[in-house]
TrEMBL record:
This is Coatomer subunit alpha. SMART domains: WD40. The lineage of its organism: Eukaryota, Viridiplantae, Streptophyta, Embryophyta, Tracheophyta. Its main location: membrane. The coatomer is a cytosolic protein complex that binds to dilysine motifs and reversibly associates with Golgi non-clathrin-coated vesicles, which further mediate biosynthetic protein transport from the ER, via the Golgi up to the trans Golgi network. Coatomer complex is required for budding from Golgi membranes, and is essential for the retrograde Golgi-to-ER transport of dilysine-tagged proteins.
């Protein structure tokens, strides 16, 4: 085939399945810059020499590739051709690359003179490969590569895996279980690999993101992409802080320096740049590569940078001169020298150039401690280099990859090298022997990137369809507990640890033959105490065991050697004193052997077994894929079987009565016959466990020590900093091993789970003892007791009277509620007590509560519904004495006393109403008298209508409590009686502690017989010299033995309580909510104020009172069921629909929405523009007062809320400064200062122009010409109107070089903030304090005072921060 003008076909590549390329944006073709761009030709055969020369950039010979409708040109370094819908890129010995849309059946290599030396044999020797490196490049069809001898394909220890677009960059967080993944789609994902959840995503890059890196200590990460931009992000605020611009092509890698504020970046523009992220400037440009720089990394300890390029070299750069140039001021001064740096500076110089690869180098990295470098290239080789102070040289080459090596690095803790490649494999190499150890392969995904955790033994790899987080070796030590001893393997030694003395000693060395594979260490350990025999199993040779007989006198001697007896088997375990069983998976049988390693017998297993565990003498616990079974080896029968997911570990209790089956995310508890008790599920991995002396199972997850009770209840005991494996639990001590094989002892507080265990086992004597002696407290214990049906016990954990009161109301214990209300003596608590007593129908308590709150209206209505006409008539007399006309009328209406109502209307001057009432009710004489008084003003009544008399309904019950539910005493009550009977001496103290014996309750029968409460109240009012004639309930003189009414029923024999109510929706709203707005909507103003105080430091709630009321009322609707009953309050839920389940409650519907703030902000802006400063100030303050009660859905809206707070704060501060300035009439200097301070506020541009104009005018008139000229210059920089610009230029012209007439406390050269209280500048470096809510700054003397900007929070108080979205809690 010939192309163009006589091109000669030299070689043809056939058999390639060229995939269609992924186009960049909207299907457009990507084009590389190679000094000059390429012309696009529609005719595939029209490739002229000038076009090819343009591609080559005049660099020698030209080559081309032609396929079915495609042409290609390149030089010895790079070639690119674009024809119609085709784009093909390729190079020999450097960058293999082809991009095409239609399938290509063959590619022909042709030459155009001048012809370089090339032949088919040379082509084969250089391994021309069209496998793509980039996601937009193709790779060969499905080729099967032969396995490299000496390595094996192994199963990967995958800890976490994602499915996504192609992953091009990865970075582990040094402390948190997070990993960043940058995708080819332009999205950066932040994952929690421990929980397996996506935490956040960042998508501001335009195009693929190829590099990403976490900062070691700051909450920052950096990313670089194909949009030529480097972005620095703050993951706490979920936003990009700034963008670094300077690179002229795709950015391949970015990395933070561990110590200095530096970022190193590598780019396709053939340069490496070092940036100072604090000053946000480029401080050095490293030039020297003549092709794309694929990678650039800092040395972890020395002042070196290593880079890899497609120019086939690895370069090491010395940046020690940069260490002296780290100040931001010097960085800014050096900007003018950047052009000099482009052509070679002195702050970063090439130390070594490593040449040896035959193709472009994709990656190079330093060894963490040794002077070694490893590199990987398109020649499919991994090279190891060594360097000293004067030179660097190649040490060895690792061959085995079948395609381009994408990434390679040293392992941080082991002498191994990890590399991955486009051949869809990850390979592990021995760095010492320089041989392949292991290979991990995927079916369809090419690997692109590797990352290693800086602290843990974790690696991550990115591939075509996501990423994986994995480990190379298991870190769980093999151990076995026998009595007071622990036997475990560490550092190729069998060790012995005694729990009682905490003595640790070596027993025997375990010498294993050198293995070329990873993960071949001991996996399980079984110990026979009588024979002192140890059985160690590992995965070596597909599964094997070693038997050691340890003489008892060798304890502590590490020099004792013996040849272990070995054998093959997937797992092995002792089943008797001198017998052990080995699993033969191929035949699904257990082989029983003696201590001489001789076969005693063979037993077929009942299920397809992949592992065996000890299950008692002569028994095996067999693990299958979906079940476990206990098998008796003697009788060959199944003793028990249980369906369960794949089990990893088995933990027996000390008495062998219970067994815990540990799976990856679950714990199954069963008895010795495998009868299921309960299953406990965990969201993160379960790692280990042990039984304590009380039968409680203590286990660990990745970050917690937790307990599991026999009834299935669980809880957290302690949070862990590092992962541990529990070996034994004894009392309050947990003995464990860490991942390094070190024994540790952790002390725990077991009070909580021992208390719950005593409740479960009905050991109420222990419960009582713990109540008296322990420090059990907390909402968790109280909630647990309520949930388990012991609300009366929960009351005894609480000493605070308010908490006792709330708990008593929730549990329906009206007696304790009355006692607590007496101690608190607060109007709100008496009111709530009255509501609860009314709900229970205990009218005597309701009456007493209404009396204490002086709630006359409710008291009258109570007498009406209970039919107590006698006390109602006395209420009428009391209303007369108080001169309460409406109270008199209501009581008369409740009594049905028409004459009294007419009298009240007549005395109050409502003669027409009195006349109508008299006529309607047939009082003719009174009506005639009133008609005579009215004369001609007698109202006319409608004719032909029947008069309906307004009379009160008859009550259902009369003067007594409503019928109550009789409930017999519970088991716990009997337990208490047993305790009291057994210990009479403690009866008095116990009663006082529980709060029953000393409770001061009124005997209502005695009250009704001996004293009338209302009568006494009436006497008190008659005898009191009170100008208002009202009751003074605080001075009541009640009989000492009858202070409060008594709840109905006999407390000793039986209790009368109301049926247990369901949980109100408003209570469900606040159950797990930390959002103040939802607490206000539920009516819990107290908790809402506490939340706002804790989160934002708010102490002044007066401005928020109307907002609280509006929010509460707006979140409820009210329905009248019957005319004679009060309205029913119904909570309004957000997004409710008829299809919703009645058991699922949504959040409250809030009347304040974030969208409303936008309208308020616009109105405030308009008022500011119109000069209505008081109105604008009121609007901005309204925004600040409303924001704490707003609830938003997304984190983006959270950021917008915080931004709105900053806007409102700046305007409130500025407007208050302006209002203050206008109040000053005499002091010209202070007026000028305040006008100048107003310009320091961050305002909208239209307002900033007005403020600058105002300040310029005031200062000019005051004779401060230099300051006025400064404001004029600032005004001209803010795009002023024509009139403003004209005025500013006039000021500049007239001011000239004149100085200020007065010295102002204002320096525009020195950055400052304005104190929100004193309106004085606080310059940079001076101490200040801030408002925890709005962020306004103040001088230190203002600390502890109310913020004068937001008028809500206390300056300088501690606060956790704004919480306005459920996403923040997650």
């Amino acid at each position: 085939m010939r192309s163009g003008k006589g091109g000669e076909v030299v070689h043809t590549l056939t058999g390639w399945d060229v995939q269609s390329a992924e186009m960049k944006r909207e299907g457009t073709l990507r084009r590389r810059r190679l000094g000059s761009f390429i012309s696009l030709h529609q005719n595939p055969m029209e490739i002229s020499r000038p076009v090819l020369s343009g591609v080559c950039g005049g660099l020698g010979g030209v080559w081309g590739v032609v396929g079915s409708g495609c042409g290609l040109g390149w030089d010895a370094g790079v070639g690119v051709g674009v024809l119609g819908d085709w784009r093909v890129a390729h190079h020999f010995r450097r960058l293999p690359r082809v991009v095409a849309r239609p399938p290509v059946r063959h590619l022909s290599v042709f030459s155009v003179s001048p012809t370089p030396t090339f032949s088919p044999s040379a082509a084969s020797s250089t391994s021309v490969d069209l496998v793509a490196r980039d996601p937009d490049l193709i790779y060969p069809g499905r080729r099967s590569f032969p396995e490299i001898r000496g390595t094996r394909v192994a199963a990967m220890l995958t800890k976490f895996e994602t499915k996504s677009n192609r992953v091009k960059g990865l970075s582990f967080h040094s402390k948190r279980p997070w990993i960043l993944a940058s995708l080819h789609s332009g999205v950066i994902q932040l994952w929690d690999y421990r929980m397996g959840t996506l935490i956040d995503r960042f998508d501001e890059h335009d195009g693929p993101v190829r590099g990403v890196h976490f900062h070691k200590s700051q909450p920052l990460f950096v990313s670089g992409g194909d949009d030529y931009k480097i972005k620095v992000w703050n993951y706490k605020t979920h936003r990009c802080l700034f963008t670094l611009l300077g690179h002229l092509d795709y950015i391949r890698t970015v990395q933070f320096h561990d110590e200095h504020p530096w970022i190193v970046s590598a780019s396709d523009d053939q340069t490496i740049r070092i940036w100072n992220w604090q000053s946000r400037t480029c401080i050095s440009v490293l030039t020297g590569h003549n092709h794309y720089v694929m990678c650039a990394l800092f040395h972890p300890k020395e002042d070196l940078v290593v880079s890899a390029s497609l120019d086939q070299t690895v370069r090491v750069w010395d940046i020690s001169a940069l260490r002296k140039k780290v100040s931001p001021a010097e960085d800014i001064l050096r900007l003018s020298q950047m052009n000099t740096d482009l052509f070679g500076g002195t702050d970063a110089v090439v130390k070594y150039v490593l040449e040896g690869h035959d193709r472009g180098v994709n990656w190079a990295s330093f060894h963490p401690t040794l002077p070694l470098i490893v590199s990987g290239a398109d020649d499919r080789q991994v090279k190891l280099w060594r360097m000293n102070d004067t030179k660097a040289w190649e040490v060895d080459t690792l061959r085995g990859h079948m395609n381009n090596v994408s990434c390679v690095m040293f392992h941080a803790k082991q002498d191994i090298i990890v590399s991955n490649s486009e051949d869809k494999s990850i390979r592990i190499w021995d760095a010492t022997k320089r041989t392949g150890i292991q290979t991990f392969r995927r079916e369809h995904d090419r690997f692109w990137i590797l990352a290693a955790h800086p602290e843990m033994n974790l690696l991550a790899a990115g591939h075509d369809s996501g990423m994986i987080v994995f480990k190379l070796e298991r870190e769980r030590p093999a151990f076995s507990v026998s009595g007071d001893a622990l036997y475990y393997v560490k550092d190729r030694f069998l060790r012995f640890y005694e729990f009682s003395s905490q003595k640790d000693s070596q027993m025997v060395p375990i010498r294993r033959p050198g293995s070329v594979n990873l993960n071949q260490g001991p996996r399980t350990l079984s110990f026979s105490p009588t024979e002192n025999a140890v059985l160690i199993c590992s995965d070596a040779d597909g599964g094997s065991y070693e038997l050691f007989i340890v003489p008892k006198d060798t304890s502590g001697r590490g020099d004792y050697m013996q040849d272990a007896r070995k054998g093959a088997g997937a797992s092995a375990v002792f089943v008797a004193r001198n017998r052990f069983a080995v699993l033969d998976k191929s035949n699904n049988q257990a082989i029983v052997k003696n201590l001489k390693n001789e076969i005693v017998k063979k037993s077929p297993l009942p299920v397809g077994t992949d592992a065996i565990f000890y299950a008692g003498t002569g028994n095996l616990l067999c693990r299958a894929e979906d079940r476990v079974a206990i098998f008796d080896l003697q009788q060959r029968v199944v003793l028990g079987e249980l369906q369960t997911a794949s089990i990893k570990y088995i933990v027996w209790s000390s008495d062998m009565e219970s067994v815990a089956l540990l799976a990856k995310h679950a714990i199954v508890i069963a008895n010795k016959k495998l009868v299921h008790r309960y299953t406990l599920h965990e969201t993160i991995r379960v790692k280990s466990g042990a039984w304590d002396d009380n039968g409680v199972f203590i286990y660990t997850t990745l970050n917690h020590i937790k307990y599991c009770l026999p009834n299935g209840d669980s809880g957290i005991i302690k949070t862990l900093d590092v992962l541990i494996y529990i070996t034994k639990v004894s009392g309050s001590n947990i003995y464990c091993l860490d991942r390094d094989g070190k024994n540790r002892v952790i002390s725990i507080d077991s009070t909580e789970y021992i208390f719950k265990l005593s409740l479960f086992r009905k050991r109420y004597d222990h419960v009582m003892s713990m109540i008296r002696n322990s420090q059990l407290c907390g909402q968790a214990v109280i909630s647990y007791l309520q949930q388990k049906g012991f609300p009366e016990v929960a009351l005894h954990f609480v000493k605070d009277e308010k908490t006792r009161f709330n708990l008593a109301l929730e549990s329906g214990n009206i007696q304790i509620a009355v006692a607590a209300a007496k101690e608190i003596d607060d109007k709100d608590h008496w009111y709530r007590l009255g509501i609860e007593a009314l709900r229970q129908g205990n009218t005597s308590i309701v009456e007493y509560a209404y009396q204490r709150t002086k709630n006359f209206e409710r008291l009258s209505f109570l007498y009406l519904v209970t039919g107590n006409m006698e006390k109602l008539s006395k209420m009428l007399k009391i209303a007369e004495m108080k001169n309460d006309v409406m109270g008199q009328f209501h009581n008369a209406m409740y009594l049905g006393d028409v004459q009294e109502r007419v009298k009240i209307l007549e005395n109050s001057g409502h003669l027409p109403l009195a006349y109508v009432t008299a006529v309607t009710h047939g009082l003719k004489e009174v009506a005639d008298r009133l008609a005579a008084e009215l004369g001609e003003n007698v109202p006319s009544l409608p004719e032909g209508k029947v008069h309906s008399l307004l009379m009160p309904p008859a009550s259902l019950t009369c003067c007594g409590d409503w019928p109550l539910l009789r409930v017999m005493r519970g088991i716990f009550d009997n337990g208490l009686d047993t305790v009291r009977a057994g210990n009479e001496e403690e009866e008095e103290a116990t009663g006082a502690e529980w709060g029953d014996e000393e409770l001061d309750i009124i005997d209502m029968e005695a009250v009704m017989q001996n004293a009338d409460v209302v009568a006494e109240l009436e006497e008190g009012v008659a005898n009191e010299d009170n100008e208002e004639g009202g009751w003074d309930l605080e001075d009541l003189e009640l009989p000492p033995d009858a202070d409060t009414p008594k709840a109905a029923g006999n407390a000793r024999s039986s209790l009368f309580v109301a049926p247990t109510p369901g949980m109100p929706v408003s209570q469900i709203w606040i159950q797990k909510s930390s959002l103040a707005g939802e607490h206000v909507a539920a009516g819990n103003f107290d908790t809402a104020m506490r939340l706002l105080s804790r989160q934002l430091g708010i102490r002044n709630f007066t401005p928020m009172k109307p907002l609280f009321m509006d929010l509460f009322v707006g979140s409820h609707t009210y329905m009248h069921a019957f005319a004679t009953t009060p309205a029913i309050s119904i909570a309004v839920e957000k997004g409710w629909s008829e299809s919703d389940s009645s058991n699922v409650r949504g959040p409250p519907a809030l009347v304040f929405k974030f969208s409303q703030m936008d309208e308020k902000l616009k109105a405030a802006y308009r008022a500011t523009t119109d000069g209505k400063f008081p109105e604008a100030l009121r609007q901005f303050l309204s925004i600040l007062h409303t924001i704490p009660l707003i609830v938003v859905e997304s984190r983006r809206e959270v950021d917008e809320v915080k931004e709105l707070i900053e806007i409102a704060r700046e305007y409130v501060l500025g407007l208050k400064i302006e209002v203050k300035r206008k109040e000053i009439k005499i002091n010209s200097v202070q007026q000028q200062e305040l006008a100048a301070y107003f310009t320091n506020c961050k305002l909208q541009m239209i307002h900033m122009r007005l403020v600058l104009t105002n300040a310029m005018t005031i200062c000019y008139k005051g004779g401060n010409y230099a300051t006025a000229a400064n404001f004029a210059r600032m005004l001209l920089e803010n795009r002023p109107t024509e009139m403003q610009a004209k005025k500013a230029r006039q000021v500049l012209q007239h001011a000239g070089d004149k100085n200020d007439a007065n010295q102002l406390n204002y320096d525009y050269r020195n950055p400052f903030v304005v104190c929100g209280a004193t309106f004085v500048p606080i310059y940079r470096g001076q101490k200040d304090v801030s408002c925890p809510y709005c962020g306004a700054r103040f001088v230190p003397t203002i600390e502890g005072q109310l913020c004068s900007v937001c008028e809500l929070a206390v300056v300088g108080s501690d606060a956790s921060g704004l919480l306005c979205s459920p996403t923040q809690a997650r």
